[in-house]
Amino acid sequence: MVADVTAPRLDVDGLLADPAIRIVVCCGAGGVGKTTTAAALGLRAAEVHGRRTVVLTIDPARRLAQSMGLTELDNTPRQVKGIAEGGGGELHAMMLDMKRTFDEVVEQHTTPKRAAEIFANPFYQAMSSTFAGTQEYMAMEKLGQLRAGDQWDLIVVDTPPSRSALDFLDAPARLSRFLDGRMLRLLLAPARSGGRSMFSLVTASFGLFSRAVQKILGAQLLTDLSGFVAALDSMFGGFRQRADQTYRILQDPQTAFLLVAAPERDAIREAAYFAERLVAERMPLGGLVLNRMHTAEPTALTAEDSEAAAERLDEAGDNQVAADVLRIHARLLRQAEREAAVAAGFTEAFPAVPTTSVAAQPADVHDVDGLRTIGALLTLS
């Protein structure tokens, strides 16, 4: 039985048209349609509501570029063609390049000579490309850059797919603590003491620390790390400060988080976890988008009635087509009931969160027309 809990309707058009809303963050588990939803929202904001919109995807897949008719996306917003004229809006899209964004941060906050030293450092090269949390931290950096100017009426963020959607909120804080942390400060102490070797004995206690770390990490890695920390000395504090600034933007009423989920237990569970975190962090939860929902037109013919009728036709040896149709109808009814029951688990936990649903489509979205269709469906339920 599906619990009798009805969520308020999510007014997507009201959200996209509101000039006070400057950022929409789409988040949820991987594979639930976040990228398509983000692109459809951006397109509708531009075409229907006349807003100058940019969609920032942090998804390494290329689906967003393909669906918008672009051959590629990179760290620079690219205008999407084929947008209906007359509304006054524009749509741009971009894909986060985390290394390029990290390079931009370094260039912006230090001298060209020091930036060249940082770029040449092996530890920086590894961290800026593969270090855990770098992608999410740089997503925060890029979001802060986009929001700092007045170029965009609306920024739509497509968060990365991950085992835990909370990584988008947690990873920047973890990385900034690492970059601004006590251990790196210790490693920096010898570089500040007149350029002596990383492994020179500054104090007895530091000598013991240095030898222990060297034994664990290896001399070359520790040398690279020391050089990296020394080169970044002028930037310490800035990482955490900028992450904190962007975090405050995410807490501001100008931002709306939209949870995106499919009617599957794992996806709904992840959406519920994220909702709990947003509430705890006082971040504005705009609503839930349920993708790929199956529905059946109201009828007096139940699933049980359909299956029983199909069996009678089988026994009579007649009208096999009608029997098959009845079975399909029964399966659709049961699937719709299961999906409604799964979705009700979120509504029971968060009855005040507005919800909208998008019916399952016969094919994947791969162009602007498909995105336009999804945008319209988002406003119907």
Q: Give the overall shape.
A: elongated
Strand % is: 5-15%
Q: Rg to the nearest angstrom?
A: 26 Å
Count of individual beta strands: 8
Return the average pLDDT rounded to an integer: 79
Order of helices and strands: HEHEHEEHHHHEHHHHHEHEHHEH
Query: What kind of sheet is the major sheet?
Result: 8 strands, mixed
Q: Tell me the span between the first and last alpha carbons.
A: 22 Å
Counted by DSSP, the helix tally is 16
Structural class: alpha/beta
Percent helix range: 40-55%
Point out poorly predicted stretches: 191-218
Description of the structure:
The protein is an alpha/beta fold. It has helices at residues 12-17, 34-47, 63-67, 98-109, 112-120, 122-130, 134-148, 167-179, 182-188, 204-217, 219-231, 238-251, 265-280, 303-316, 320-349, 368-378, and strands at residues 23-27, 52-57, 78-79, 90-95, 154-158, 255-261, 285-293, 355-359. Helix content is 53%, strand content 12%. It has an 8-stranded mixed beta sheet, with helices on both faces. The two termini are 22 Å apart.
Short description:
The chain is of the alpha/beta class. The chain has 16 helices and eight strands. An eight-stranded mixed beta sheet has the order 3-4-2-5-1-6-7-8, with helices on both faces.
